Structures are given as C-alpha cells and as structure tokens.
Amino acid sequence: MEPIKLKINDFSFDVELENNSATQELISKLKKGNITVNATDYGNFEKVIDLGFSLPTNDENINTSPGDIVLYQGNQISLFYDSHSWNYTKLSKIKNMDSNQLKDILGNGNIKLGMSLE
Asked: For the chain, does the N or the C end have fewer beta carbons within 10 angstroms?
C-alpha cells in the first residue's frame, strides 16, 4: 500500500496503511486531491473526523492503541490517542509516535487534520 502523510495542525506524520478495500478507496480519493477536515474530540480517547463520503467497511472487533486510525460506520475516521475496543475497520497506524507526544499534539478540543499522498 502507498504510504500517506497525515498533518495535524503544524505536525506531519507518515502513516502505514492496512491493505483492505477501505484504504484502497481512500487512496483513490487522495489521488484526486488532498483531504482536509476538522476533527472533534470524543470521550477523551479519540479525535473523530466526518469524511463527508463513505468508504467500504471490513469491521471487526479491534482493541485500539494510541496512533491507530480506524473507520467507523463507513463515513467517520477515528484517530486514537488512548485505547478503546469496538467494531472498526482498521485503516492505519501513525509510525514512530510516542503516545504522550500524540496526546500533546492533539490537545484539547477540535483540530484540523489533513491527509495527502505526499
């Protein structure tokens, strides 16, 4: 799978994608242009992004950890800075990320998040 870049506020990270139909469709969307969205905090363990479009789901019960990025209900992405367990489609994981550093970067409240192929 092609790696993607994830930009959170002024920080940029490499993201290693899973190989599934959801990530393949996400790459197709990114080939048409970058995605920039607002993410809201939920439950003090994740940031939730409403994509505005749907991706295919391959849900399974997943125990998430900081840095995991999953698809929820086909049209929302969750970026975890703590752990949680639910039925998700695994999309990716932020590479080389310390969980405390990630929580500091995500901070409190809403953030701007960008995804690109470069």
From this structure: C
